Structure formats: structure tokens, C-alpha cells
Amino acid sequence: MSKSHVPFSLTIALALTLMLGPFSVDTYLPAFPQMAGALEVSVADISLSISVYIFTLSFSQLIGGALSDHFGRRTVLLGGLALYLVAALVVGFAGNMALLLIGRAVQAFGAGWVLVSVPALVRDRVSGQDAAKLFSLIGLIMIVAPGIAPSVGSAILEVASWRWIFFFLAAYALFLIPVAKRVIFRQTPKRAVAPGTTGMLQRYLNVLREKRALPFVLWQAAGFSVLMLFITHASFIYQEHFGQSARHFSLLFAANIVAMLGFNLLNRLLLSRLPSLTVLRGATTVQALGMLLVVIATLGDWPVLGFMCAMMIAVGALGAVAPNLQANYLEFFPHSGASAAALLGATQFGVAGLASGLSTRLPHTLPAIVGAMGVAALVPVSTMLLTRRTLTAA
């Protein structure tokens, strides 16, 4: 089996593993009002659980990335799944807000070890334009997760309480353990672990010394923050501001996923004709224009469907931005893929988690939320323009 050839079963398995991320965040969004009532807190307080999850996810990836380069992908990925499973059960049985937040933090710690392993596994196998295509294909499959996750949550709420959403997440983690053992690690090349003399801090210092890769880190963090700000406040935007039901909220939220799917398909088509970096620049420009349209829709008090269409462009463009960013960034790190991926993921989730948490302290109004998203959307396009002459395509 050649290094550049990736079996479709492996692609599916990697995508299913990455789907743990969006399932962890999006499945319980429709349950916010019920959770707030059960725990006797506000919906804004429940939104804080997303910020805690995302911020912890960033820290855990730094640890998981270095451990993965040192001990191997298998140990870290399977260990993360086991930790995630136990934490999801704890959250399901939580009787107060403090235990909910602690459980979500531990759940994120396990998820971080899982999520950082997948880009490293891809980089172990392919590089350059091939990596961009594989990331795009994985993204195409896993886009299904945030599309169906709120609907899965709504379906569970029809027959059971919000607690069963987290029992479902525990069951999904349990399902991924044999998938990893029987598919992923049987179809990925054996990789020698990094020398034991290289410490965790040194691994990240080595990554940071690659100055050409750093703009991609800022680019990714800010672009992802746009999505996380939207997810954090999606329940308020559609269910409270626009007065939509939980079922309609799931459909409105899924519209953004349809847009991401469309951009991802277009991305795969363009990668056959254009360098990955060229496609990345185009998608980043579209995201900025989409965010401008969202601002106009907010100031113009557009109806819910008009607002939804504008948001579809701003959020959907990430379907083309993310895979190209990962591929171009990881091209600089052929021998330390997990540590490099961890730094990218940690910065991405850390910045997004901080932005998400701070945004819960803003006035709970649509203009304030959209304003925060607009500021985040300015950073990727600014980074793109400032580094136009210095970055080279993967």
C-alpha cells in the first residue's frame, strides 16, 4: 500500500473520530432552556459550559500532542476516549452547575487528546496537496456531525431529559474505541516515537521557531472564533431573539452546516485546479464578506430567514478555510506533526474559548454578539493581506 493512498475505510474512521468534537458541543444546544430550568440557572450560565469546554480543550491538546509524538498515537487516542467516556457520564448525573462545569472540563480534556491525534495521523501518511485533499474529504464527512447533532439532541429531548444527551455522548465514545483499534491503527503506518531526550516544552519551542507557520495559527484561531461565537449564542439568537422553537432552531442551525458542506465540495473541486493556499485566500475573503453581510442584516433588522442566509456565508466559508489551513501549516512539520497540530488546536480553541467566555459578559443582544463576531472576522483577512508576499503554498 503506497503512502499516498488512503483507504476509504480509514478516511471514514478518522472522520467519525473527529465528529466527537462537534457532537460534544452541538448536541446539547437545544437543551439549554431545559438544563437552565433543571439546574436553576440562566441560559447564559449554561452557555458558559461551552466556554469551559473549549478553553480546556485547548490546554489538553498541548499535553496530548507532545505525549502523542513521544509515546505514539494509539496510547493517547485510546486514553482520551476512555477519559471522555467517564466524564460524559459524570455530566449526565450532574445535579448542580459546579459539577456540570467540572464534568465538561474533564470531558474536554479527553476530547483534546482524541482530536489532536487525527491531524497527526494524516500528516504521518500524506503531505502537501494530498494532505489538503484528505483533510477536505474528512471535513466533508464530518460536516454531517454539526448538521445532525442539534437534531439528535432535539430527538432525545422528545423522549427523555437532557441528561440522556450526555449518556449518548458516552456511548459514542465507547463506539469509537473498537473503530480506532480495528480500522485506524491497522491502516496507518507504524511510526517511531520521538527521542525521549526531547521534553514537552522543547517540542513546542521547536514548532514556534518555524516562523513561516505562525501566521496560519493566528489565521485559524480567529476564523474559528467566528464559528464558536455563533455556536455559543445560537440558542439565544434563534430561540430567544427570533422566537423560534427547539425544532425550528435545529433546522436554522443545520442551514449553516449545509453551507459548510457546499463550500467543502467546492474546495475539493478547486484543489484539482489551484494551489491550496490560493483557495484558502479566496475562502477567507468570502468569510469576511459574509460577516459584513451579517452586520448589515443585524443593523437592518432583517427577518430570520434573511439573517440565516447571511450567516450561512460567514460560517459556511470555514468548510473551505479549515482544511487548507491545516494542510499548509502542517507541511512545515514532517517529523513533529502531533506537537504542531496540538499548538494549532490549542491556540484555536484557547482563543475561541476565551472569546466565547468573554462574550457571555456582553449585553445579551444580537448587535453585541454580531459585533464580537465581526471583530474576530477581521483578523483572518488582515493576516492574509499582511502575509501575502511571504507565505508559500503547501
Automatic annotation (TrEMBL):
Membrane topology: Multi-pass membrane protein
Major facilitator superfamily (MFS) profile domain sequence ranges: 10-394
Primary subcellular site in the record, as a coarse category: membrane
Alphabetical keyword list: Cell membrane, Membrane, Transmembrane, Transmembrane helix, Transport
Listed InterPro entries: Efflux_drug-R_Bcr/CmlA, MFS, MFS_dom, MFS_Efflux_Transporters, MFS_trans_sf, Sugar_transporter_CS
Parts forming coiled coils: none
Stretches that traverse the bilayer: 48-68, 75-95, 101-122, 134-156, 162-180, 213-236, 248-266, 278-299, 305-325, 337-358, 364-386
Subcellular compartments: Cell membrane
Keyword Transport attached: yes
Family (UniProt): Belongs to the major facilitator superfamily. Bcr/CmlA family.
UniProt-recorded name of the protein: Bcr/CflA family efflux MFS transporter
